[in-house]
Write a structure and sequence with these properties.
mainly alpha, binds calcium ion, Recoverin, domain 1, 5 helices, about 5% strand, about 50% helix
Length: about 80
Amino acid sequence: MRLNHLLAAVLGIATALASGPALAGVTEADGDGDQRASFAELTALYPDLNKADFVKIDADSDGFVTDAEWDTAVASGLIDTPAG
Ligand SMILES: [Ca+2]
Ligand SMILES: [Ca+2]
């Protein structure tokens, strides 16, 4: 059904818009859609990110960064957000 595809696309855009203003962060980096960003996914988007910083961002040390962890890291100044 075409309509379902269109609806899914619209919902996807709405979700992306609602996820935050300046910084998409985890959502943008999440290549496999599991709502978490692995080190590989994050470095694909932020090549300057090093493992030490990733470990700091990954507050519960499960090897993935969630939106909450990312927001906390941004709020605490751990992540240098790109200017703009
Ligand atoms: Ca992912
Ligand atoms: Ca984590």
